């Protein structure tokens, strides 16, 4: 092994000198050892001012080592001597220490007088001085070794618990034991020891100590979370020192772990890292740096827009990719949203105060603009709903002065003009409108309530499926909201408005999805009855029938209402329809009443059947006649039909008589159409009714004429012949067989379906 050693001793004056190194041959390594000496292994490490490592090894006996160290420590001249060691190479042949035989060092006169040549790091010393000539080479070598031992093993001044390794913590060289029984990492609860060690290492600012601090930081905080002794300033100082020594890898390790334990470094440190990467043109470090940057922002680090702009500028200088710059800009947007969330509580309070200010000024347009601004900035819908509830309360406060305008209308008009107006805005406006509607209904201010409803209609807001934002209307059933809106229209004389509200709600009353109480059902009953009377008075039969069809009790089984109580209303409508010859509507009303078992006035039903027949609406006339038979409107026919005898009450109209004859013919069709039955006679008796006995003979004679007319109305015509008068002074007629046979031949196909399949 060969090594080059050069040394110089600075004088008091600061003058620069260059020295040439003297080459010293150490000889070859041999296996021979001295019998009187035992050599040990001693390895040292120093760091120059330029952060370069120097290594050298030597072997001396343990006894000489102790004596020489003692002598050198006592020597006053050692204080003024500083030996700078050059770069040396240590060849290691195996895990065991090498035994080196060091021959005496001989310096020639030329080597002593010649200045040492500068090495790579070009160490220079200030001041003029003379060279120290070493008379004994062995003494010189020992002096250098023992001086370095003092530097590396000198305590750093840390006060540590006994369980910690003092060589590892408290010396520059550290612990060299392969298996040390003392702790090299602070234990749980000794975070203060950690902080003290970090502070000491940072203050010394040696490369090896900073690396040891990083290792200690990583090992400790991977196992234990930060406690009360954690000092954020120490973390920042450590990162700053690492950056100055260009230890970027260690910086990334410490920052990543600090993010995991939620102890973020200062923003200044982050910017310095970006500056370092840019200055050193470390393009390969950019992806890892961007990743750390995003983690810091997500963890809560706050940057101003100018910080983001500065970082983007640095990234452009280091030629970062478009994706990396985009990632920084995305974090800028996310940070702005997060900052807004933090400020939203304050913003909401200021917005609520602004609502009160708008109320005092009566500036509802400004209130609408405030709604738009808050909507654009609010992220949580629950907060925005709370804001809208405050608006609803403001628009429905009791006013000391009577105002001509309606605040809700001005507010809603302003909001609706927003280009970004959405269905959500319509829903919220509808709910606010419901609160305003309840407010005016309570005060009986029908005109203002009407204006609120007109504005909702104008903005096409389907409020009937909504609820209010405040007060009792927030929990009101749908039936109640519709009732109040319809009542407001009705009080303003707007039947069309009331019908619009009811139709808009699909006439809903009580359903599993929209339940209501009995009082709401009763209010709906009274409301619809009032509307029906007013509409019927205007001869609006179709609208009246629509209202009556949606009375409580008709929609579902949950409405336990006795529908027979509606008989008077329906019969009144039926009578009006027949009177006005609205036969289609009359027929529909009668069918509905029969299907819903609503008692129907027989006189109205008979009039309807007669009117239908006279208008040649025979299908409907026959259908209603069958229904009338089933309801008992006419005397039963079953007892006489098959005896070839038909009893017709004299009070029937010609249409009713004809329909009775049709049933009579169909019932006896088999006997009429059988051969050899032409001699059998079909008789018709025009019955005098007891209630008609007091009537004049003219009434009965009119009945006779109606019977003859009924036979003529038939297609083909039927011929009847007067036979006799029975004991009750009732006219008896016979039905001509040929005409009956012809009628059956032409009409039996449809008549059988109409009259036989549902015998009465």
TrEMBL record:
It is found in: Cytoplasm, Cytosol. One of its GO terms (molecular function) is zinc ion binding. Keywords: Cytoplasm, Differentiation, Metal-binding, Spermatogenesis, Zinc, Zinc-finger. Residues 159-187 form the C3H1-type domain. GO terms for biological process: cell differentiation; spermatocyte division. A zinc finger (C3H1-type) spans 159-187. Important for normal spermatogenesis and male fertility. Specifically required for progression to the post-meiotic stages of spermatocyte development. Seems to be necessary for normal expression levels of a number of testis-expressed gene transcripts, although its role in this process is unclear. This is Protein TOPAZ1. It comes from Rousettus aegyptiacus.
């Amino acid at each position: 092994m060969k090594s080059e050693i050069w040394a110089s001793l600075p004088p008091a004056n600061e003058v620069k000198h260059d020295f040439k190194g003297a080459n010293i041959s150490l000889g070859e390594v041999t296996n021979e050892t001295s019998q009187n000496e035992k050599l040990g292994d001693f390895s040292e490490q120093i760091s120059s001012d330029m952060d370069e490592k120097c290594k050298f090894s030597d072997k001396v006996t343990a006894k000489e080592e102790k004596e020489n160290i003692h002598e050198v420590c006592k020597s006053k001249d050692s204080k003024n001597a500083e030996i700078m060691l050059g770069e040396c190479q240590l060849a290691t042949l195996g895990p065991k220490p090498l035994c080196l035989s060091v021959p005496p060092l001989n310096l020639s006169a030329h080597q002593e007088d010649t200045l040492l040549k500068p090495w790579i790091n070009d160490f220079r010393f200030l001041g003029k001085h003379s060279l120290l000539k070493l008379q004994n080479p062995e003494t010189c070598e020992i002096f250098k070794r023992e001086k370095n031992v003092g530097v590396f093993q000198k305590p750093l001044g840390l006060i540590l618990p006994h369980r910690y390794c003092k060589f590892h913590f408290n010396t520059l060289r550290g612990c060299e034991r392969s298996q040390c029984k003392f702790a090299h990492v602070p234990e749980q609860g000794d975070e203060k020891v950690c902080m003290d060690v970090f502070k000491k290492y940072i203050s010394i600012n040696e490369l090896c100590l900073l690396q040891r601090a990083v290792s200690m930081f990583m090992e400790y905080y991977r196992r234990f979370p930060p406690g009360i002794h954690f000092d954020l300033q120490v973390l920042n100082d450590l990162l700053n020192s690492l950056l100055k020594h260009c230890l970027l890898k260690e910086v990334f390790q410490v920052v990543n772990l600090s993010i995991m334990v939620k102890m973020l470094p200062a923003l200044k440190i982050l910017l310095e890292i970006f500056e370092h990467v840019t200055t050193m043109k470390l393009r390969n470090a950019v992806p890892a740096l961007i990743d750390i940057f995003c983690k810091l922002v997500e963890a809560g680090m706050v940057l101003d827009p100018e910080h983001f702009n500065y970082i983007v500028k640095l990234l452009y200088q280091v030629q970062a990719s478009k994706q990396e710059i985009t990632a920084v800009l995305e974090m800028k947007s996310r940070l702005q949203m997060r900052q807004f969330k933090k400020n939203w509580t304050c913003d909401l309070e200021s917005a609520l105060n602004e609502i009160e200010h708008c109320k005092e000024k009566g500036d509802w347009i400004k209130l609408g603009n405030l709604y738009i601004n808050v909507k654009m900035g609010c992220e949580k819908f629950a907060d925005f709903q709370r804001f809208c509830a405050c608006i609803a309360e403001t628009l429905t406060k009791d006013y000391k002065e009577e105002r001509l305008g309606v605040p809700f209308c001005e507010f809603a008009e302003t909001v609706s003009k927003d280009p970004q107006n959405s269905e959500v805005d319509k829903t919220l406006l509808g709910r606010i409108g419901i609160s305003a509607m309840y407010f005016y209904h309570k005060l009986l201010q029908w005109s203002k309530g009407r204006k609120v409803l007109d504005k909702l209609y104008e903005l096409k807001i389907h409020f009937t499926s909504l609820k209010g934002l405040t007060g009792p209307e927030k929990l009101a059933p749908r039936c109640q909201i519709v009732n109040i809106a319809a009542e407001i229209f009705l009080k303003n004389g707007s039947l069309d408005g009331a019908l619009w509200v009811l139709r808009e709600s699909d006439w809903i009353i009580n359903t599993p999805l929209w339940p209501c109480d009995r009082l709401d059902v009763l209010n709906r009953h009274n409301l619809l009855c009032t509307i029906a009377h007013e509409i019927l008075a205007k001869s609006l039969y179709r609208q009246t029938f629509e209202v009556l069809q949606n009375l409580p009790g008709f929609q579902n089984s949950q409405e336990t209402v006795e529908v027979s109580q509606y008989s008077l209303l329906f019969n009144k409508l039926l009578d009006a329809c027949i009177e006005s010859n609205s036969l289609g509507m009359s027929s529909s009303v009668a069918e509905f009443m029969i299907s819903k078992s609503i008692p129907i006035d027989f006189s109205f039903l008979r009039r309807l059947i007669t009117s239908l027949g006279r208008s040649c609406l025979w299908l409907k006339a026959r259908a209603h006649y069958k229904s009338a038979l089933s309801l008992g409107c006419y005397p039963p026919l079953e007892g006489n039909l098959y005896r070839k005898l038909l009893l017709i009450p004299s009070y029937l109209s010609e249409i009713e008589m004809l329909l009775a004859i049709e049933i009579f013919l169909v019932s006896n069709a088999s006997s009429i159409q059988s051969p050899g039955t032409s001699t059998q006679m079909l008789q018709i008796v025009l019955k005098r009714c007891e209630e008609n006995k007091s009537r004049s003979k003219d009434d009965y004679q009119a009945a006779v004429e109606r019977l003859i007319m009924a036979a003529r109305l038939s297609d083909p015509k039927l011929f009847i012949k007067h036979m006799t008068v029975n004991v009750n002074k009732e006219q008896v007629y016979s039905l001509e067989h040929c005409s009956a046979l012809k009628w059956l031949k032409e009409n039996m196909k449809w008549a059988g379906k109409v009259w036989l399949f549902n015998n009465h």
